[in-house]
Amino acid sequence: DDMQPLKGKCVLVTAGPTREGVDPVRYFTNYSSGKMGYAVARAAHAAGAEVILVSGPTSLKPPEGVELVNVISANEMYEQVMNRFDNVDAVIKSAAVADYRPKVINDHKIKKADSEMIVKMVRNPDILAELGSKKQDQILIGFAAESENIDEYAKKKLEKKRLDLIVANNILEDHSGFDSDTNHVTFFFPNGTEKDFELMSKEDVARQLCSSLASMFEKRAKQ
Ligand code: PMT
Question: Which parts of the sequence belong to the DNA/pantothenate metabolism flavoprotein C-terminal domain (predicted)?
Answer without folding.
Answer: 6-214
